[in-house]
Amino acid sequence: MSTDRAGAVPTYRALETAHLADFGPVQSYDQPGDAGQNVTPDSSGTRGAWLRGKVAEAPKAGTYTLIITHAPNIREAFPSEAADLAEGEALIFRPDGHGSASLVARVKIQDWPRLAAAP
User: Fold this and answer.
1) Count of Cβ atoms closer than 10 Å to residue 21 Cβ
2) Terminus-to-terminus CA distance in the chain, angstroms?
3) What is the pTM of this model?
4) b/e map 77-108, b = 16+ CB within 10 Å
5) What is the phi-psi region of residue 36: left when phi exceeds 0, alpha when psi lies from -120 to 50, beta otherwise?
């Protein structure tokens, strides 16, 4: 990808992750974007607030919501939960139905093959 599309690279990687994992249809959002700044910190807190709001939304009955984003966004939204977040690690949250969500699990990169093989 050319350098003039640097802002699209993080979004492309997230979409490619969903595609390679065969997660089915995906929806892309502009809100966690960074105006071409390559996912730099957001001093306004806007991205973090948006991501906390999305995580707090209850999924449709019988479904799950999977949000694929990048470490700076996760750390802005969940600074204490993501302080030592490792590459390829996931935070699993449960919406509480009242506009918030609680962390219920962390999945480390070495756990993915075992989870993918589970029935």
Assistant:
1) 12
2) 37
3) 0.73
4) bbeeebeebeeebbbebebeeeeebeeeeeee
5) left
pLDDT tens-digit map of 52-82: 999 999 998 998 888 888 888 888 899 999 9
The CA dihedral of 73, 82, 19, 27, to the nearest 10 degrees, is -40
**89 vs 81: CA distance, rounded Å:** 12
Cα dihedral across residues 104, 23, 41, 71: positive or negative? positive
For the chain, what percent of residues have pLDDT higher than 90? 34
The per-residue pLDDT for 69 is 85
Span 25-33, average pLDDT: 71
2 alpha-carbon distance from chain centroid: 24
